[in-house]
Amino acid sequence: MSSQESMERKEVKKGLLEKFPTPIKKLFNWGRSYSIWPIHFVTGCCSPEFMQLFGPRYDLERWGVLPMMSTRQSDTIIFVGNVSRKMMKRALRLYEQMPEPKNVVVIGACATSKGPFPESYSLVRVKDYMKVDIYVAGCPPKPEAQAYGILKLRKKILEGEEG
Amino acid sequence: MVDIVGFVQANLPIFIKILLFPGLLFIFGFVIFAVWYQRKYLARIMLRMGPVHCGKRLGWLQLVADAMKLLTKELIIPRAANKIVFIVVTFLLPVIPAAMIAVIPFAPGYAIYPASGYSLLLFFAISTLFPVVGILRGWAANNKFTIIGAFRMIYLDIAGEIPVFLASTGVMIWAGTYDLQKIVELQRDMWFVFPQILGFIVFFIGFLGMIEKIPFDIPTAESELVYGPNTEYSGAMFLNMMLSDYANVLAWTLLMITLYFGGYNGPAIFPDPIVNGAFWIIVKLLIAISIIFTIMITYARLRIDQAIRMGWSYLLPLSLLNILLTIILKFFLFGGVA
Lengths: 163, 338
Fold this sequence. Notes:
Strand order of the largest sheet of chain A: 1-2-3-4
Mean pLDDT of chain A: 83
Helix content of chain A: 25-40%
Order of helices and strands of chain A: HHEHEHEHEH
Largest sheet of chain B: none
Oligomer: heterodimer
Radius of gyration of chain A: 16 Å
Number of helices of chain A: 6
Distance between the termini of chain B: 54 Å
Number of domains of chain A: 1
Largest sheet of chain A: 4 strands, parallel
Helix content of chain B: 55-70%
Shape of chain A: globular
Number of strands of chain B: 0
Distance between the termini of chain A: 23 Å
Strand content of chain A: 5-15%
């Protein structure tokens, strides 16, 4: 996939939300901020830490984060671990299946900046292909850090600053 | 000029029934409560908290936030889909469980449509429409997961609905009437779950298949089919699908309470029921959905062939045996009086 194509993909279609006046937009932003339904694109070894987020200790459902099965009903894609050139095609397909407005969270050093494999021929950075809202640093980031990242996304949606 | 105010005033009781209590508001309220309660209940069993921060302490605003988000999402209609059917089904599907609830009595003489003494038959007649519209929902999206899910739903509904109908035939014979109102009145002394215990077991297992919750969530099997027939629905259309699923749970649970647990009657230990109205039916509803959610979190999913074999080779003969036992018990031991 050439970088020219990826630049075109970065253009995000304006959502339904943009047409409303500010108070209603704020109300709907409140609703969206408490109901982040992610799909997770888990390809690497940050996943054991990521699994903790929906377990008893770091239960993210306290803030209404509910992992969904189908891309059609979810609104955040979470990249966990290294993404290769071939997997990126699949990831973009999932991303395009999601309805607007949607967000991207990138967890871990690999997906952020190729991490420990800077000269790899096959790894790609997620930010070259889509607009990323939140990066979580670490190799692997602790569950606390990942939960903090998703809560940062929540705050960003609440204040209408995403995208 | 049509006199709208006069028309509403003349038909006020029926408007209240349709819009407020057993009708629209009650169904919406139950669905919002049931989804929230399911999330909290399942979370507590998993030693989690469930929704907490949205709304103080209990997370009671969680479903409002979810609904608000789903309303603002983009509506995606797949290019290969049959557009008209794809959209119409989302409005048609929640209507069917609502029509099933219309025949259930909530207090003496308080049902939306008493069906002149044939309410139990009418309930089953309407309930057969649910899989018919359900297969359209899978077919219209033109996606392999939705189509497989829709066919599984048909298999499951046929395997579950026939034993359920034959089990409630036992109640019809025992009570000697098709009228749900009379069936409830006959249970004032003793709930029908005691003389009809075999029928109740068959009914309950078939009922779990009809509402498609976890031991029988074969149509929406998460690990095989992405989300079954609901896979392609996004935003507000998905909201309607959730509404129809939980309204279906409500309708079948109300039928179970009405047939076997005395409907709006209080427990038989009180000679005079404490509140003879909708109070007891709602208390029983809460207990019933708690039991359904406990079963949901306890068991694993059956395969489709296991579920069908269970329906045809065990539930069907047992329900026929129950009819035979009911006839013997009623006409030879009790002399034809329930």
